[in-house]
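Hey, resending since the last one bounced:
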Amino acid sequence: MGGARDVGWVAAGLVLGAGACYCIYRLTRGPRRGGRRLRPSRSAEDLTDGSYDDILNAEQLEKLLYLLESTDDPVITEKALVTLGNNAAFSTNQAIIRELGGIPIVGNKINSLNQSIKEKALNALNNLSVNVENQTKIKIYVHQVCEDVFADPLNSAVQLAGLRLLTNMTVTNDYQHLLSSHIAGLFHLLLIGGGSAKVQVLKLLLNLSENPAMTEALLSVQVDSSFLCLYDGQVANEILLRALTLFQNINNCLKVEGRLAKQLPFAKGSLFCLLYGEECAQKMKALACHHDVDVKEKALAIKPKV
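The structure tokens again:
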């Protein structure tokens, strides 16, 4: 019996020892939140080293913002923006960064002549813009971002980052009016941009097209007749379906307003003339026989209204 008791105590000791080792391991690893490790840092620059996946706490974010505001080193600036942008993907940190005065610090970096820094700043603002309260501070950059998007190299990373930010800023109706004077530029970019740019511009225009208050601004814009090529049957579905949804949204908004499109006076060459002209009507008729069910369904929904 004594031997069995001794064996039992030894086994218990091993279990307790293993538990203690695990606790020490967890302490040395640091606490975890959301499956990611929070690690202390001896200096602000340490926060930009190693894994960008570490979630920073408020004190660390404050250090990072101070570093971003005070450094002139482009390498450190870019790393700091990447780290900050990744942390801005978490809702808690979106609020913390705003409360620490971080939005203008990041916003100032979109003025950088360094294209990589500019892109990272736009990406960080994009993540921050998911928070509605943050949008009230980010809205001051909308006009500049629009101008930069049109001036930046076609299909560049900076251009796409800017378009993503503008898309986020127009998810609700609050700031869509800020883009009213830039709609013509968006349609021009839609026609000359590559596949990724076309999709991103269409996402942005779709946001605007859902708001009846933006309908006249959209329909009155002067658009090149090549726009109707977006309704050709061979166009990639990710573009074609969005282009059809744009038309469908405008029809729906006119219905909400209780008006018929043909009752509105629009100049020749306007989006109105293209969408409600004979050529587009023929394209909708052809798409009503499209092999893709979703395309066919949208074209049939639009066809009676043209």
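Confidence is low (pLDDT under 50) at residues 1-42.

Sorry for the duplicate.
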